[in-house]
Design goal:
By secondary structure, the chain is of the alpha/beta class. It has two domains: 152 residues, NAD(P)-binding Rossmann-like Domain (Rossmann fold); 164 residues, Lactate dehydrogenase/glycoside hydrolase, family 4, C-terminal (L-2-Hydroxyisocaproate Dehydrogenase, Chain A, domain 2). It has eleven helices and 14 strands. The longest helix has 22 residues. It is globular, with a radius of gyration of 19 Å. The structure holds ligand NAX. This is Malate dehydrogenase.
């Protein structure tokens, strides 16, 4: 039998956590033959800690054959101990009237502490996936604390945007989502992201050719994908949870599957014109131990202009938190 993989999850008593943990425990993330140990981390407050116990009771009640242990923590240093995967879902939500800069800085403190706790305590092979927003910049901040672990182990999630884009293209073309390929997300997980329809394929043919409506791609598809999170909140009264958890399952599973190409926010060394050192969504090809950035897509002027906008936003976020980065 395989050695269990330790999966640490922050924000485990939250909405995404509730849609996520049962799928990890059932083997959907790391495989149906891979035992897991869940190390669940919440803030020390009574409410979240009590809710976390409830989630653990339900996990017990599923009697998942692969779930070898469930451990509950209020201290990240203990919660990340020996973790192979660190899924950073928890973050501070934007309160009413709160400035974006304050949100960035408040979350910055959380991700400095978590980055440090991971670097000091997690397993040597630890990989990190950040979901809590603003996820690209939170990820950059956490990675800034890494002394032992390579910074490129820290990734942020743009997979929900990729999945949203694939679904929209399939719907428009009237095909199954499995017919859509080569759709990747560039830049920030925010409305400025660029869902690159220019290289997307439908049934192996260029998506733009199949859809035959450039105005729709530029003026409807891009904003629909970019503002989908807000549209879900408007419709449901709550932010995306099941689809976000599903995207995180996809993100981790595909990082753990050599050969798969998928969009991940990773540290830029200048690919596609992104500023060096920001965490930008790009296509990566997973390898046995990590990933390599796919740099072969040629961008036209339209795509370049979109990438420039989302890059500017990432650089602006970095400027806002630069004193924290040390
Ligand atoms: P919830 O508010 O339901 O849950 C968040 C949980 O995190 C709470 O239980 C809270 O106590 C906990 N938490 C806060 N700070 C923590 C800390 N320092 N350590 C441990 N736990 C902490 O939010 P939920 O709907 O689950 O969303 C979680 C995060 O995902 C949010 O930041 C949200 O903006 C972000 N999202 C990111 C997406 C992406 O594509 N990257 C999409 C979905 C989602 O909006």
């Amino acid at each position: 039998t395989k050695t269990p993989v330790r999966v640490a999850v922050t924000g485990a008593a939250g909405n995404i956590g509730y849609a996520l943990l049962f799928r990890i425990a059932s083997g959907e993330m790391l495989g149906k033959d891979q035992p897991v140990i869940l190390q669940l981390i919440e803030i020390p407050a009574e409410g979240p800690q009590k809710a976390l116990k409830g989630v653990a009771m339900e996990l017990d009640d599923c009697a998942f054959p692969l779930l070898q242990d469930i451990q509950l923590f209020d201290d990240p240093a203990k919660g990340f101990k020996d973790a192979n995967w660190c899924l950073l879902v928890g973050s501070k939500p934007r309160g009413p009237g709160m400035e974006r800069a304050d949100l960035l800085k408040d979350n910055g403190k959380i991700f400095i502490a978590q980055g440090k706790a991971i670097d000091e305590n997690a397993a040597d092979d630890a990989r990190i996936a950040v979901v809590g927003n603003p996820c690209n910049t939170n990820c950059m901040i956490a990675a800034s604390q890494a002394r032992r672990l390579p910074k490129d182990r820290f990734t942020a999630m743009v997979r929900l945007d990729q999945n949203r884009a694939a679904a929209q293209l399939a719907k428009k073309a009237g095909v199954a989502v499995t017919d859509v390929s080569d759709i990747y997300i560039y830049g920030n997980h925010s409305p400025t992201m660029f869902a690159d329809f220019t290289h997307a394929k439908i049934g192996g043919k260029p998506a733009a050719e199949v859809i035959g409506d450039e105005a729709w791609l530029k003026n409807e598809f891009l904003p629909t994908v970019g503002k989908r999170g807000a549209a879900i909140i408007e419709a449901r009264g709550q932010s995306s949870a099941a689809s976000a958890a599903n995207a995180l399952i996809d993100h981790v599973r595909d990082l753990a599957t050599p050969g798969v190409v998928h969009a991940v926010a990773v540290p830029s060394t200048g690919q596609y014109g992104f500023a060096e050192g920001v965490w930008a969504g790009m296509p990566v090809r997973s390898t046995a131990s990590g990933y390599e950035i796919v740099t072969s897509y040629e961008m036209d002027d339209f795509a370049k202009s979109k990438i420039a906008i989302t890059n500017d936003e990432l650089v602006g976020e970095r400027d806002t938190v630069k004193e924290m980065l040390g």
